[in-house]
Amino acid sequence: MKRFAFAFEEMRASPETVFLLGNKGAQLAEMTSIGLPVPFGFTISTDACREFFAAKGQWPSGLKEQVREKIASLEKKAGKQFGSRENPLLVSVRSGSYVSMPGMMDTVLNLGLNDETVRGLATQTGNERMAFDSYRRFIHMFADVVMGVKHELFEEAIAELKHSVNAKSDTDLSTGQLQQLVDRYKAIVTEFAGQSFPSDAWAQLEMAVSAVFRSWYNERAIKYREINNLRHDAGTGVTVQSMVFGNMGNDSATGVCFTRNPSTGAKEFFGEFLINAQGEDVVAGIRTPQPIQELEKFIPSAYLELVRIQALLETHYKDLQDIEFTVEHGKLFMLQTRAGKRTAQAAVRVAVDMVNERLISREEALLLVKAEQLDKLLHKQLDPEAKKKALVIARGLPASPGAAVGQVVFSARKVAELFKKDKNAQLILVRTETSPEDIEGMHLAKGILTARGGLTSHAAVVARGMGKCCVAGSNDIMVEEKNKKFKAGDLNIMELEWVSLDGSAGEVYLGQLPVSDPTFSKDFEILMSWADKVRRLKVRANADTPVDARKAREFGAQGIGLCRTEHMFFEKGRIKAVREMIVAPDKEGRLKALAKLLPFQKGDFKALFKEMNGLPVVIRLLDPPLHEFLPKSKKQLLDLAEEMDVPYKKLRRVVKGLHECNPMLGHRGCRLGLTYPEINEMQCRAVFEAALECEAEGFRPLPEIEVPLVGFANELVETRKVIERIARETGVEGKVHYKIGTMIELPRACVTADEIAPHADFFSFGTNDLTQTTLGFSRDDVGKFVPIFLQQGILSKDPFQVIDREGVGKLMHTCIEKGRSVKPSLEVGICGEHGGEAESVMFCHELGLDYVSCSPFRIPIARLAAAQAVILEAKAIDGIGVVKPVASLSPVAEP
Amino acid sequence: MKRFAFAFEEMRASPETVFLLGNKGAQLAEMTSIGLPVPFGFTISTDACREFFAAKGQWPSGLKEQVREKIASLEKKAGKQFGSRENPLLVSVRSGSYVSMPGMMDTVLNLGLNDETVRGLATQTGNERMAFDSYRRFIHMFADVVMGVKHELFEEAIAELKHSVNAKSDTDLSTGQLQQLVDRYKAIVTEFAGQSFPSDAWAQLEMAVSAVFRSWYNERAIKYREINNLRHDAGTGVTVQSMVFGNMGNDSATGVCFTRNPSTGAKEFFGEFLINAQGEDVVAGIRTPQPIQELEKFIPSAYLELVRIQALLETHYKDLQDIEFTVEHGKLFMLQTRAGKRTAQAAVRVAVDMVNERLISREEALLLVKAEQLDKLLHKQLDPEAKKKALVIARGLPASPGAAVGQVVFSARKVAELFKKDKNAQLILVRTETSPEDIEGMHLAKGILTARGGLTSHAAVVARGMGKCCVAGSNDIMVEEKNKKFKAGDLNIMELEWVSLDGSAGEVYLGQLPVSDPTFSKDFEILMSWADKVRRLKVRANADTPVDARKAREFGAQGIGLCRTEHMFFEKGRIKAVREMIVAPDKEGRLKALAKLLPFQKGDFKALFKEMNGLPVVIRLLDPPLHEFLPKSKKQLLDLAEEMDVPYKKLRRVVKGLHECNPMLGHRGCRLGLTYPEINEMQCRAVFEAALECEAEGFRPLPEIEVPLVGFANELVETRKVIERIARETGVEGKVHYKIGTMIELPRACVTADEIAPHADFFSFGTNDLTQTTLGFSRDDVGKFVPIFLQQGILSKDPFQVIDREGVGKLMHTCIEKGRSVKPSLEVGICGEHGGEAESVMFCHELGLDYVSCSPFRIPIARLAAAQAVILEAKAIDGIGVVKPVASLSPVAEP
Questions:
Q1: What is the pLDDT of residues A311-338, one digit of tens each?
Q2: Half-sphere exposure of A696 toward its Cβ, with a 13 Å CA cutoff?
Q3: Using a CB-CB distance cutoff of 8 angstroms, which residues of chain B are in contact with residue A806?
Q4: Which residues form the PEP-utilising enzyme C-terminal domain (chains A, B) (predicted)?
């Protein structure tokens, strides 16, 4: 028979047992095994949870028997009997996933109490009041967690009772009053659960275990896993442990502590406790806990033991530990230890300190910091405490991370106007959607909020490029530019009112929230330098402007992996020429307009080459469909027609002619340059002339021209011909070292990579578009089903955040294999947004890529993840960490 | 050194030599080798042509020497000298591709003539007049073909001369007048070509060969290859052959003949000739040629020899031959033989007759008919002769094949009105674009013409489903419904004027053109029965209605491979309920609307099952994005709001909410059913209840439910659960045999087929969408670049017509391999439009598919192609026929 239940003393903690038992169960086993005082207990495996869901809520066969057997063993060790009225064994029933998900799933304490056993507990403890206090807590918790009776009903009942007896605090209630409360609670259960409270301890236990299983798929747990990129199919373990009581009087206590300060990382024992309380009281915040050091005054022996154990645990686990303990009649019991959650700042400091303390190696230190966490160090952040108290008035897409606080303004023109008056003006530009005309205003504003558009909308793309906080596509708001206000629900936010944006979370807060600046500590620099020594992957930046390029170098970029030349087209003075080119009726007209653009582009490239002196700069030829450069609305078109001195009807005809049903799959990428070679000619001329001039000024430019959206080798062949011709014409050959390569964004390019590679000096995966085409997911349109798929477990991760290994990843693998089969020296990189996401970076390392490229602000993340990939590879642990694949499963309805 | 020039007697015809030399050169070699009287000559290979283009118009090294050597050899055999004034050798220079492209490329006759050699020719032939006549023809032809001087200039000059000397016909001109003409022609050349006419024979030869090479990329040749799906990268051979003269007097002649009647296929020697003429005269139509049988009267010995040889050639080649010959002073020379072009009707008859004559086997007969050609037998056709004389007023997309002649009407309502008055009304519905409201009018009209929309627009899809002729997306027309007219250029076509549509070519003609009905001869039935015995692939139909299903069975369908249930949604009485479902604010509202649809769908399925009694019927669950069921324009929305009694603003909000940037990659396919499971539930209930009722009535329904757009195994798993639940609820289990499978339309599905297959009873390739996603080509938007890519040779074929073997094909291969690796019994089919295209059908055979499915009208094509695939496989010749891959090349500009 399959084993589902494991006593603490039978197991040790390992990646396998963490996944099998959940982290809590595995660590309780580990602490037991190294001789620490842990109350006896056992853990039901995550296997059982998965089988429970697969069987639509039935316990797997054998589980019941194994649980009974383990309880019998507990009874023996504790010298108590489960359900006994004389000497009852009470247990806690707790959840625990492979990664700690604090507070997301359910817990039941004091299980085993009923009208008889409560008497036994009173006898055992000699404390009748405590027994009934535990009983009323148990009913409340069990009814809420297991039976779905609303929390508030019990809170109202106790409040009512306190009021009627004039009690200030719960501790003022007498034993008799608590007995009354138990009866009232039971009546509430019968009324609202449709069944009476189960008095049988075994029934309680089975119901509680099932409820903990089910809590794996409660809404907040699903949400938490989504946010933290955790597997929906892992399931929870259930730990059943004999109760110890911190509420046995003044020689009893319960508390939570950290081996170091989890906010700052400082090496100091940190935590808090409550005398005469159960764990939930600490969390609930009814009484104010005391700093952990005070415990020495109350129960000195237990405190000294705790100090010893916490130090021992940190040394044992080689990491900052988050510890739960209870003291029962002066005796210390360890209830949990786990790696402590910590701020990014603390993570970095702890890692570096521990190396200095010779506790861990540099490699271990690199694994102690979550790469994704570094994001917080690199952007301004809204103060987390202030956020808790502030009002979220709208949510949108987290389009560009960071924080921004400012007064709302509804037009770019107005932003510029106000900025002119006051250079320190803090403004938030709020628009239905942005367009190229808004660029200047976007630049001057502190943050951007739009009502429409996805993560690749104009606002989102431009904001990320500027490193500016942006919340995009907020369906919660309605912008009324004319009335100088926006509506968020029933609220009207008028011009110049203050709001605060959290671009990392996609949240809009009312008012001015405090903001913390990004900080690069000395420790951060040290950690990064360690990462750089370890990693094999190079890290480049996606950067379109000299400002971005400088930032990128500061963050450690080893080149530019993607310069989107079209972003230069949107800037003032250029967009007009771009539009003239589009509207031109023939090649001659296009050439005339392109000639106006040439000096701009050349200037851009010169500045880029100088910033990136001696480092490669990948320049992508024009990629987006031309209609993106024209406005959409009738009014804008009328204005433009006047500005360009072109009949409105003609302009409308052009816009209509450019309309596409699926622009993502339309006339863009290399298809543009093949149908209008003069565009490529101008861009290449700008690149080569810029390079020559930089060379002459003593710089060392290394341009790499990149052809986008290639699907057929011939497309690259033909485009390459044009590039090489311009190279000859500009006389760059022999003077500047340049490369010609292609983006890999189409499944066809992957499966025909052996045909394409002979004509390419490098490949660069555009995994945004490759994900769109491989999965048939339009990134702008997935909002209607991807969130639902994540919730239903159809998808385990958002494929636009984390590379879809099984699908897109396979095609990437095929591509590299085929490409290098004909050209072993082929340089391969990635420049999709996955290039800055830690898990995807690790995958790129596994695939054998040469570099990843990402936005400047994500470079440190990529550097660390690339180093972690090397270390994990050496440890033969896959990039996701400790997890082995399991059969998928899906939630079942509540019974 | 590489060999580029091959004497006739050195080679035989084979697939390899046909590709190397072109068909003409290979067949001249073959005729020479079997002892037929062929003037001496040699052929320059297509290799040389490809290298010529690769080297931007330079002759490959060695070619010049080889040509000189071959000419020397000709001189020896002919006893004449090239460029000699005494005894000149004259040659013809002709093009010839691997597939005959009659009239598409250039030819030069009489090459080697100049002011001196013309004297030699006069002496040789004793015919001074003929010599100068040949000379003036040569200058004219050479200047036109090689030097780019306009044809008309020479025609004007000769007309002027004839007028001035009062000559009626060219033959009335005297030797002296022809000499004058030669001088005039040379002056024209000097004036218009910017250089004088080359008198050196070697210079003439080199210029002519280069010109023939270049003619490979002239506009009409490119167009021809596009239409006929020929390779742009093959290049042309150049055949150089000593001249023989049919214009030596009344014992000389030239002619063209066929071994059987190419129109009807009747076994009769067929052709025509001119006495005392050169080949071009027959083609030019200046004199009226005589039936071939008349030749016996003029030159009996030559005629008898010709009859003997034509019979011999047909037996030798085992196919109807198209023969060119010349008689010089009574001696017959063969100038060309090739498989004769023939009508579809003739092709079928010839094939069957030849088997009856024991000339060929049934397998050979099956290869004699081009599968694609059968299309002409299955639809009405505009009379080809009448088309030549009629005015094309507009062109559009060939959205649905066939022909339609009728009076134009601009609204569906009006069509219905007119039809009510006269059941025989012949009407053409002309709309900017069609919408579901137009269905009834479309049904009653003979044909449909739209100004907007692609090959997958509403009009196109619906028309193909109805088997109704449709020209869609004609940019040439502007519909003014209000004014009851449409504009085509400057023409105004008013309501009730007559037009004729050619849906196969996408052409609109003014007036009433005669139409020929489709004909199924006895021979056709015989040929099909042979095909059915040979083929391994099953052939099913894409059919959505009982009418289509019946047609499909008539055409030999072995089941329905794709029933697009949403097409049923568009019909009257249903679309309203569909819209109610979409507009419904919650599940309850959707369920109410779906309940209205259930009886309709059930009725549809019952009728389908009855028609296809005992054969499988694949029913695809709802696939298109919901916005396709709602109108777009404000006016239509206002009307709909009133009709549905829903506020306009609400309806507009729904439409806006459904808007997608790239609907092709959006909320559609199984994503709909996973987010709104009630839609799947209704459809499955309809299928199962219909099947049960059919079963009870004594029929044998075999439903196969198909889940569209699956990319993740989990999508199929979850959808399958719903289908199986409904199966249980309807009690169909055990009573009706049903299957559940999935369409394969996404690259991700292909590379994860081993994960999907365990949950699928069958796979069906949706190659339309798979092509869109693999190539990143939106079918509706490729008009802007695919035609240009075809012309530039970047693409060799339109991937939406012929499966892209190297890209999409590889993914299909991977998919089948992975799918069958875990489920060897997996049934695999194809239901994209490629399933009815001959070359793609052959590819499906090679891949090991179980069946193809196509529109009813293409079933015979698929049946024949499937048989041909088996025969070619046995012959170890690939599906494309005779062609091996070659390096790609691209056109160079004229020098």
A1: 999 999 999 999 999 999 999 999 999 9
A2: 9
A3: 751-752, 755
A4: 523-869
